[in-house]
Amino acid sequence: MGEKLLEVKNLTIGFPEETGMRTVVDDVSFTVGYGEIVGIVGESGSGKSMTVQTIMGLKNRDAHILSGEILFNGKDLLKMSDEELSKIQGNDMSMVFQEPMTSLNPVKKIGWQVAESLKIHTSMPDDEIHGRVVEILANVGLPKPEELCQKYPHQLSGGMRQRVMIAMAMICWPKLLIADEPTTALDVTVQAQILQLLRKIHMEANTSILFISHDLNVVKEVCQKVIVMYQGKIVERGYTEEVLYHPKHDYTKHLIASIPRNKEDIREDELVMQAKDLNVYYSVKERGMFGKKENKHVLQNVNFHIRRGEILGLVGESGCGKSTLAKCIVGLNKNYTGTLDIREEHPQLVFQDPYSSLNPMKKIGWILEEPLKVHGMKDKAKRKELVSQMLTQVGLDPSYADRYPNELSGGQRQRISIGGALILNSKFIVADEPVSALDVTVQSQVLNLLLDLHRTHQLTYLFISHDLNIVRHFCNRVIVMYLGEIVEEAEVEEIYEDPKHPYTQLLFHSILTDERKLQKITDVEQSREDASANGCPFYHRCMSRSDVCREKRPERINLNPEGQDPHWVKCFKYQS
Amino acid sequence: MKYMLKKITTLIITLLLVSVVTFVAFSVIPGDPALAKLGTYATPERVEALREEMGLNKSLPERYVDWLSGAVRGDFGESYQYAGTPVSELINQRLQVTAILAVMAFIIILVISIPMGIVSARKEGTWIDVFINLFTQVTMAIPAFFLGMILTYFFGLTFKFFQPGKFVMPQENLGSCIRYLIFPAIAIAIPKIAMVVKFLRNSVLSEVKKDYVRTAYSKGNRTKKVLYIHVFQNALIPVITFIAMVAAEILAGSIVVEQVFSVTGMGRLLVTAISNRDYPIVQAVVLYITVIVIIINFIVDILYQFVDPRVRTE
């Protein structure tokens, strides 16, 4: 340690524009020592990705390096010819990208793709290369590496593809590994596994890692040193603990404080919604002339309720049926059996993606007026007045009514989505990942807006999220879903302190807050086929399963029968 | 295997539908084939007798079944014009000519447009790219028959590479037949080359922006390798569909070009048959062409499996 592997000196990068050069990376200097893990934190547009892509020799053709040097092992990468550079790329220095779904070549076999770097940089015979590939695939925790070599990327899950990416980056045992948001696109449980894997690699090979992320919790978990970037500049740097617990720069303080305020408990006893034995189906048509219509059973025997004024969190991995439940509640999916009793007119949905959920051809005013028109409000002046009131309520100037969605930032658009949900005076809002597409600091603003509206309008929320830190601060009660079933349901404090279901335990131990907890996670890759028809859906991943779990589905039981707040769990462990 | 089976069933159904459409279309065209065959001065009795003989008094479905069972065996009846000559015989001779012409045009298209498209994409924005763009803009606008006239004038009349109008059937001398057909093939190919070049260029350029290309560079690949090893196969996937469409258009193009170069192929047969109201021939040629187009599409579907593993392993 200590010896410099990578040294970036006064790096300045700009894009030529009509008005002159727009600087995106401004006088950035930092070093990465041998065996060090350095994190770069910042929001989108902070210049962090541009910086590392330039180091890797992958920068955009239009970007101009205005000044500075990048010394790798003492040699300036910027002065090298393409040929010299390509001898370092993939060999001494390699990169893992954010999007595991698109970063692999879809038409090449996994084995070939992992082997490619070795073929480029060494003259090893083919059988030896194959041996190394199989070895490294096993090393990054992928089962059946021999078979895997013959597979194509689309046959793998996101987590598996990211492991393949890491294997690919590590095959030549590089001195420096650049990881650009390697876990952002993944589920929480998978995220924890990938971080664990990166640390294992660091320990075993003493590889230096340059780790880019927007997520402070992740950076805290893996990095020894951290650099905070804001608008192209480094605003703060130092040891991770030091920076996170004693931030000096205003932006860092802002970033660290970006955890939403705590909610208030305004719950009443009256129920707003109750689902009894809800089974939801989804019809999919097979492709081609003879494609059959298939009714997929997405949600199984779902029972839950929401009290007036409550904020109920719904958590689970992607594909577990969260969004299907949301659509079912607001009436977009009528293909269900069981009872769904909603005592509030027009429950409204706030969507995840603020970029595609607003019609780009219509003005904001028109978008907000539309629900009023649909519900028969003929008075134009009245509609306009309601729209400008609503804009004020969601924290925007009434003049925004004349703008188009593309003139607004992501956070502002999400405010419009919230306004659209509230304009019919609905008291019950289903929010499907409302902040996950936003930057951290914007997230907290939107969440605080939701909390303000909750208090002033006495709203009820069903809040769907995969971010367990947000759910903890935001919600009163939590339900946990796994493959279409609610496996646990309890008050937020109780479930975070003492998760009962093995899946909930896995999920909550994956939140990166505690070193000891992270060590405990052991998990296998999941797939829907794993769930046997009659047994517990979690059987194949469960650490504490027994024979009965394979044969039968557990019923839900209340672990807190005396207390006021029930704690439901579906697991045989607690049945006696 | 399941994929193949599905595709073959779809193919058979499509072929049946096409045969129904072709048959019905010619049955509803006004005019009595018997009358057409005998001429306007024939007595009503003779016409009636011929109608009986030709089976025109039967119901439409019955006639369809008769026609289809003949067609499957390659029997399309007799031509009205060349009385006594079976339609299939007339077609088979000319089909060979058109097939040679189409295959030549197709090869010319592939050999020229694929390298050109790749070069154009690789050298995006340079003078080579600009030049290729200009070339494609111009040639796309030139109709094949006009190009045919120009080629005839220069290569036929001025440089005497071939003798316009002196077409040799392949049965007589295959070598000189092919030599003659080079120029009609070029006339068909040039406008299509332009389209394929443009399409391939855009396909490569959109592939190059994808994430996996960045990954390939990060492994230490040089531009050439990234392009030929990673990008090319992916860029080809949409191009294959497009080339199949082009192949179908070659057949349509040959109809016109055969006229210009006086090539006795299917196109000429079709045009003369139409002007003579020789319906059995027209019907058969139309069916042939549609069947060929459908079969080309079928082959493309099969080819997809080899290029795109996502289709193969679905």
Automatic annotation (TrEMBL), chain A:
Originating species: Frisingicoccus caecimuris
GO terms (BP aspect): peptide transport; transmembrane transport
High-level lineage: Bacteria, Bacillati, Bacillota, Clostridia, Lachnospirales
Family label: Belongs to the ABC transporter superfamily.
Domain ABC transporter: start-end pairs: 6-256, 275-508
NCBIfam families documented for this protein: oligo_HPY (TIGR01727), PRK10419.1 (NF007739), PRK11308.1 (NF008453)
PANTHER family, per database record: TRANSPORT ATP-BINDING PROTEIN (PTHR43776)
Record keywords, A-Z: ATP-binding, Nucleotide-binding, Transport
Keyword Nucleotide-binding set for record: yes
SUPFAM superfamilies according to UniProt: P-loop containing nucleoside triphosphate hydrolases
GO MF term (any one): ATP binding
Name of the protein in question: Peptide/nickel transport system ATP-binding protein/oligopeptide transport system ATP-binding protein
TrEMBL record, chain B:
A single Gene Ontology CC term: plasma membrane
Membrane topology of the entry: Multi-pass membrane protein
MF annotations from Gene Ontology: dipeptide transmembrane transporter activity
Subcellular localization(s) per the UniProt record: Cell membrane
ABC transmembrane type-1 domain sequence ranges: 95-300
Residue intervals passing through the bilayer: 97-119, 131-158, 178-200, 235-261, 281-304
Keywords, alphabetical: Cell membrane, Membrane, Transmembrane, Transmembrane helix, Transport
Main location: membrane
Pfam families per record: BPD_transp_1, BPD_transp_1_N
Protein family (similarity comment): Belongs to the binding-protein-dependent transport system permease family.
Annotated protein name in UniProt: Peptide/nickel transport system permease protein
Organism of provenance: Frisingicoccus caecimuris
